[in-house]
Design goal:
By secondary structure, the chain is an alpha/beta fold. Helices cover 45% and strands 16% of the residues. Helix 15 links the parallel strand 13 and strand 14. The longest helix has 21 residues. The N and C termini lie close together (11 Å).
């Protein structure tokens, strides 16, 4: 009998490869999957509803409260309408001060930056819950802590038991941008009420065991294996106006703090040859571009905006080598397996990587590149220059990447994912 699965994720579901793979894997085993995510009003081409396949459907809840949208429209109106609105407001305030003044104070509070964020997120949270309760789902699947409460409420308000799976892609208690102790408190309370937990690797599973007393399921974030013709690529040298034989030294992914990207730019001036190319967007991209300006490195460093996941391999195949140089700023970084590491491998691209346990196990264990000190720009440059000089060793690494992709791929790893669902279904019998 087909089971109905309601999956939550707190993003627009445009570049979330892991969630896409998991939902697709479930739909291929005849589960009926509804993914609830968030609409992006800035992207007019993004539909509120998508049918990925007959068993896998996507629902995007509205991002902004209707009242907020109406207020924004009023503020954008012509001056004459604003004047009329002010006169009407003044009249109402004089005639009905007991009602109007408290409402005005509340409105001003809601329009202040912090209160506005809470208001927006609160309405998204409620819409997700209402969407999650509208069908008779058997299993709720919450991706990360920011959707765990939604899954908990939807699964526990039913008369009949519903399964709740917590899929934690990050280490919620030690993660950049999540410094409040509140995250740990919320996770500790809710984790006692889940039926199964998934984490990305065994280092994080052990961390969870030490913290909460149980060892969760492990599902690595391996990509799908690319079977396309290697000639199917988009030329970065042409796009960037470089010589055809220029070596592309690639970083792809989010341009965020704690990822060693400043050190990467500092190292670029020490590279014997090649052009450092960033593909992606993020909060510190403008800072990095200013850094390149100040160091006069435009001839050595280039930036390309984020590209769709389906197109990314066509860019990655241009690379001579790829970078994953996370800094040890939190346990989430230190314990990462890193999807970009495996994306490089899928494109036969050797890696310059940080010396953290899960990454080092792959890079040095399978001899697919070099591990360096990601906090030291000189160490990064030495690793790059070694792979530029040592052509014979570099070619061996490329050949080993071709073999490693048969080992680190979703086709094999999804068996472990589906086993999580098999083990929980017994509670629904």
């Amino acid at each position: 009998m087909k089971k109905r699965v309601c999956m939550f994720v707190w993003n627009h579901f445009t570049n979330d490869a892991r969630v896409l793979r998991e939902c697709t894997a479930l739909s291929e085993t005849d589960q009926l999957v509804d993914l609830i995510c968030i609409d992006n009003p800035n992207n007019k081409e993004l539909p509120r509803y998508e049918e990925i396949n007959p068993n896998f459907k996507v629902y995007r809840v509205k991002r902004y409260p209707d009242i907020l949208l109406q207020l924004q429209r009023i503020f954008r109106m012509a001056p004459i309408f604003k004047i009329i609105g002010l006169l009407v407001s003044a009249y109402l305030t004089v005639m009905f001060p007991v009602v109007v003044i408290p409402l005005a104070v509340l409105l001003l509070l809601l329009l202040k930056t912090r209160m506005r964020v809470i208001w927006i997120r609160g309405t998204i949270f409620l819409r997700m819950i209402f969407m999650g309760l509208r069908k008779n789902y058997d299993i709720y699947h919450s991706n990360d802590l920011n959707t765990l409460l939604q899954g908990f409420i939807c699964s526990k308000v039913r008369l009949k038991k519903r399964i709740l799976i917590y899929d934690s892609h990050e280490v919620q208690t030690s993660r950049t941008g999540y410094n409040s102790r509140l995250y740990g408190i919320i996770e500790r309370i809710l984790i006692k009420r889940i039926d199964a937990m998934i984490v990305e690797n065994h280092t994080r599973a052990k961390y969870n065991e030490d913290l909460y007393g149980f060892y969760p399921y492990v599902v690595y974030n391996y990509p799908d294996i690319h079977r396309e013709d290697i000639s199917e690529q988009l030329s970065l040298t042409q796009q960037l106006g470089l010589a055809e034989d220029e070596k592309i030294l690639l970083y792809q992914g989010g341009i965020q703090t704690g990822r060693g990207l400043e050190k990467l730019i500092q190292a670029a001036q020490l590279f014997k040859e090649g052009t450092l190319v960033f593909i992606g967007d993020g909060k510190i991209k403008a800072d990095l571009e200013r850094m390149v300006d100040q160091m006069d490195l435009h001839h050595k460093v280039k930036f390309i905006p984020k590209v769709p996941l389906t197109e990314l391999p066509k860019y990655t195949r241009n690379a001579y080598l790829g970078f994953q140089v996370l800094n040890n700023v939190c346990f989430n970084h230190y314990s990462a397996s890193s999807n970009k590491l495996f994306e490089y491998i899928m494109s036969d691209v050797p890696v310059i990587a940080c010396s953290f346990p899960e990454i080092k196990k792959v890079v040095e264990g399978d001899a697919l590149g070099l591990c360096i000190d990601s906090h030291d720009s000189v160490s990064i440059a030495e690793g790059v220059n070694y792979l530029l000089d040592s052509q014979a060793e570099y070619q061996k690494m490329k050949d080993r990447c071709a073999a490693a992709k048969e080992k680190y791929n979703w086709t094999k790893e999804k068996v472990n994912f589906l086993n999580v669902y098999s083990s929980t279904k017994k509670y629904l019998a």
